[in-house]
Amino acid sequence: MATGSDLTDTGAAAGQGPGVVLSVDAMGGDRGPAAVVAGLARAAAAHPDVSFILHGDEAALAPLVGRRRALAGRCTIRHAPRVVTMEDRPSQVMRHGEGTSMWSCIESVKQGEATVAVSCGNTGALMAVSMIRLRKLPGVNRPAIACLWPSRNPTGFNVMLDVGADIKAEAPDLLQYATMGASYARNGLGLARPRVGLLNVGTEEHKGRAELKEANEMLAAGAEAGNFSYHGFVEGGDIPGDRVDVIVTDGFTGNIALKTGEGTAKLISDFLREAFNATFLSKIAALLALTSLKRLQKRIDPRRVNGGVFLGLNGTVVKSHGAADATGVAAAIRLAYLLAKSGFQDRLAARVASAGAAGQDAAGLGALNGNLE
Amino acid sequence: MATGSDLTDTGAAAGQGPGVVLSVDAMGGDRGPAAVVAGLARAAAAHPDVSFILHGDEAALAPLVGRRRALAGRCTIRHAPRVVTMEDRPSQVMRHGEGTSMWSCIESVKQGEATVAVSCGNTGALMAVSMIRLRKLPGVNRPAIACLWPSRNPTGFNVMLDVGADIKAEAPDLLQYATMGASYARNGLGLARPRVGLLNVGTEEHKGRAELKEANEMLAAGAEAGNFSYHGFVEGGDIPGDRVDVIVTDGFTGNIALKTGEGTAKLISDFLREAFNATFLSKIAALLALTSLKRLQKRIDPRRVNGGVFLGLNGTVVKSHGAADATGVAAAIRLAYLLAKSGFQDRLAARVASAGAAGQDAAGLGALNGNLE
Question: Which reaction does it catalyse (chains A, B) (predicted)?
C-alpha cells in the first residue's frame, strides 16, 4: 500500500526542466484577448522562467503581444482561426472543435509542448475537448473540477471538488475526488496530510442520500492509500471553515454551492459599498479605513482564487473565470505555473494509480473475509 | 381554473379573530428558555393583539414569564416534562415524543387553540412531529421548509424552498414547492405575482438532471394555476439576486446552499471586523462609519430572517434557528404573527387544492389531446 508522500522523483516531468511552458487560450473569455495578454505580461514579469504558447487569431494577437516588453521572446503565437463561444454546446465543440483556439490550446499539452493549459472559455466545452484529447487517467471514472475557496484555514483557502465537471457522482467517484483533491491540496496549498470532508446536510452518520453513506465508509477506508485524513461528513458552513481542507461533493451540489457563495460575497460587498457611500461621514470613514478595507477585499477577492483545475485527465487544465480581467488571468497563470513547477500531474497520476491498487487489495481482502465468514 | 389572487375570504381562520394566538416551544433551543421568553416579551410589546401558549418546564418558565411585564395576562404556560434535544433522532421523537414541549407545542395547533407553532428545536424532529400530528395537506406529497434570503429585490428578501424537509424531490414535488413558495411570497412578502425560478447548474434548457428538465416543463405549465410567473432555470448566484422572488430546489441542494450562504456571510463579517480592528486608524474609521456599518449589518443579519416555515401541512410551523437569541426569537415570532394574521394557512390550502385540480384538468386535457392526435 502506498502511504508515502507525493514527493516522489518526477524529474522527467516537463515542468522540471530549465523553464515552464504553459499553453494559453487567448480567445473565448468575456473580455477578449487583450485581458489575457495583459495577464500573461504580469505573470511573465513575476516568474522569469515561464514561457507561453498562445492560441488564437494571430492578426489580433501579434500587436497585443508586441506591445508587452515582458513577453518579448517568451510567447509563441499559434494561429487558430475559430473561437468557441459561451453559447456553443459542449457536444458540438467535441465533434467540430478542431481549428478553435481552445482545441489548439489543449493539443499543445497533449503533444507535450506545454505542461499545463489555461483557458477563460466555455467550461463545458473545455471539459469536453480536454476529455476527448487528453483522455481520462487510467483508473479514473469521472474527472472533476476543483476550486479554491477563501477559508479560515492558515493557508487562507480550502479545496472543493467537483464544482461542475459532471452532475452525478457515485460513491467510488467521490473516493477518487477525495484522493485527487488531497493531492491537489498537497501540491497547491503545501499541506502534508490534508483533512477531507464529505459534503452532506448534517454531520450525523445516518443523514443524507444512500450514495453518501456508502461514500462515507469508502473514504474512511481509503484515507491511508490516498494520504489524507478523513473527517467524515461536513455541512455547507464548513466550506469556508477550518474543520477540513478539502470538501468532496458531486458536481451539481458543488456548482450550486460555489455560485451561491460567490453571489453572497458579491451581495455583501455591494451592500458594504452602498453603506460607505450613504453619508458624508461614512465616506470620510471609508477613506480612513481604506487600507483595512483593501486588506479585506484582498482576502475575499474572487480574482485571487481564479482557476478551477480539471483533475483526472492525462494533463492538467486550468479553467479561468470567463469574466477574468488581467488580475484574474495572472492568478490563473500563477496557479498553472505552480502546478507545472511542482510536477503535480505525475504525482497525481501516481497517487491515483496507487490508491486504485490499494482499493483492489482492499476489495480482494474483503472478498476473502467474505469467504471466511 | 383558479387564477385569482389568494385574497379570498378567510374570516373563519383562527388568526382573523380579535387576537392572534401563537404556540411556542420554550425548550430545545441552544440558549434555553430565557432567550425564548425574552423574545416573546419583545414581540408582545410590538404586537398588542398577540398572545402565547408557552410549552415547557413550568417551574423554569413561571419565574421567567413573571418577570416580563409585557407578557402579563398574555402568556399561558402549558407544562411539558420532557425536552427534545438536538441529538435526538427524528424517528425516535416521532414514536416516543409525547410529553415533550415540542410535541405539546404542535398539539396546540392541531387542537385549534393556536394558529401557528414556533420552535427553536431540532429541525428533523420538529418536522417529524409536525408530519405525524398535523398530517400533510390533501394533495401534498412532500412538505417543504421555506426560508427567506437577503436579496437585491425591493422587499430585501427572496424565498427559497425546500431547505431541508426532505433530501429528495421529484418533478411533481418541485411544482408543489413552486405553488406553495409563491403563496408564501404573496402572503409573507406582499408580492402579487411572484417570479419563480428552478435552481440548476446553468440556465440553458438542456442542462441538469432529468427530473429538473421534467420539472421545468411542469412549472411552465403550472404557473397560471399557481398564480406565479415562471422564469425557468436559475443558478446559485440568483439566490441573493433580483431575477426571481422564489427559488425552488430539493431539500438536499437547498440545505447546502443555505448553509454555504450563511457560512460565507459569517466569514466576510468576521474578516470585516478583523480589518477594522487592525490599526488605530481603522478603529477610528469604524467609529465614524458606525451608522453605515450597522445599516449593513441589519441588511445581512441572519437573525432578521430567522424562521424557516414548514409548508404543506394542516397547520403552519415556524422553525427558528437553534442558536437564536432574543432578537432571533422575536423575528421568528413576528413572522408567525404575520402569517397568522394574514390567514396564510387557509390561503395556502386553497391554492394547493385549486392547483391540484387544475393539474388534473390539464392532465385530463392532455389525455384528450393524446386521443385526438
Answer: a fatty acyl-[ACP] + phosphate = an acyl phosphate + holo-[ACP]
Location of C-alpha cell 421567567? B64
Query: Has residue A85 been placed in a domain?
Result: yes
| Rounded CA separation A174/A213 (Å) | 11
Q: What pLDDT, on a 0 to 100 scale, did the predictor assign at position A14?
A: 39
pLDDT of residue B241: 94
Domain check: are B295 and B211 in the same one?
yes
Residues within 8 A of A (CB atoms), B 242-261 only = 249, 251-253, 255-261
Distance CA A215, CA A203 (A): 14
Contact indicator for B145, B236 with CB cutoff of 8 Å:
no
Task: Give the bridge partners for A158, in sequence order.
Answer: A149
Angle between helices A123-134 and A101-110 (to 10 degrees): 40
Only one residue has cell 485524513, namely A229
Whether residues A234 and A167 share a domain: the answer is: yes
Question: From the CA of B279, how many Å to the nearest CA of chain A?
Answer: 8
Question: Is residue A292 a part of any domain in this protein?
Answer: yes
Half-sphere CA count of A50, side-chain side, radius 13 A: 27
pLDDT at B16 over 60: no
| Domain range for A206 | 141-304+345-373
Task: Tell me if chain A has a CB within 8 Å of the CB of B295.
Answer: yes
* Window from A113-122, B203-212, B338-347 with minimum mean pLDDT: B203-212
CA A210/CA A207 separation, integer angstroms: 9
Closest CB to A296 among B257, B272, B289: B272
Question: Nearest Cα to A34, choosing from A65, A74, A71, A12?
Answer: A65
Q: For testing the chain A interface, which of B88, B287, B292, B298 should be mutated: the one with the most A CBs within 10 Å?
A: B292
Strand partners, B308: B319
Domain count, chain A: 2
Shortest distance between the Cα of A33 and any Cα of chain B, in A, equals 25
Report chain A residues whose CB lies below 8 A from the CB of B144. Answer: none
Q: Are residues A48 and A63 in the same domain?
A: yes
Within a domain: residue A9?
Answer: no
Give the span between the Cα atoms of B240 and A265, in whole angstroms.
10
In a shared domain, residues B349 and B321: no
| Residues of B whose CB is below 8 A from A305 | none
Q: Could you report how far apart the first and last alpha carbons of chain A are, in Å? A: 25
Angle, in degrees to the nearest 10, between helices B280-288 and A280-288? 170
In B312-371, the residues whose Cβ lies within 8 Å of chain A are none
If asked whether residues B91 and B156 sit together in one domain, one would say: no
What is the spatial distance between Cα A196 and Cα A217, in angstroms, rounded to a whole number? 13
Determine whether the interchain pair A265/B264 forms a contact, defined as Cβ–Cβ distance below 8 Å.
yes
B168 pLDDT tier (thresholds 50, 70, 90): very high
pLDDT single digits (tens) B44-78: 999 999 999 999 999 999 999 999 999 999 999 99
Is the minimum CB–CB distance between A92 and chain B shorter than 8 Å?
Answer: no
Scan for cell 508515502, then name that residue.
A4
Q: For residues B223 and B212, give the distance between their C-alpha atoms in angstroms, rounded to a whole number.
A: 16
Do A119 and A146 lie in one domain? The reply is: no
User: Exposed/middle/buried for B70, CB within 10 Å: 0-12, 13-18, 19+?
Assistant: middle
- At A372 the pLDDT is 31
Q: How far apart, in Å, do the first and last CA atoms of chain B sit?
A: 24
Nearest 5°: phi and psi at B323? -95, 15
Nearest residue to A262 (alpha-carbon basis) of B246, B219, B261, B102: B261
User: Do A259 and A293 share a structural domain?
Assistant: yes
Q: What percent of chain B has a predicted confidence (pLDDT) above 70?
A: 89
CA neighbor of A335 nearest in space, from A85, A75, A90, A118: A118
Helices and strands (H and E) in chain B: how many: 12, 11
Residues B41, B78, single domain; the answer is yes
In a domain, B364, yes or no: no
CATH number at residue B98: 3.40.718.10
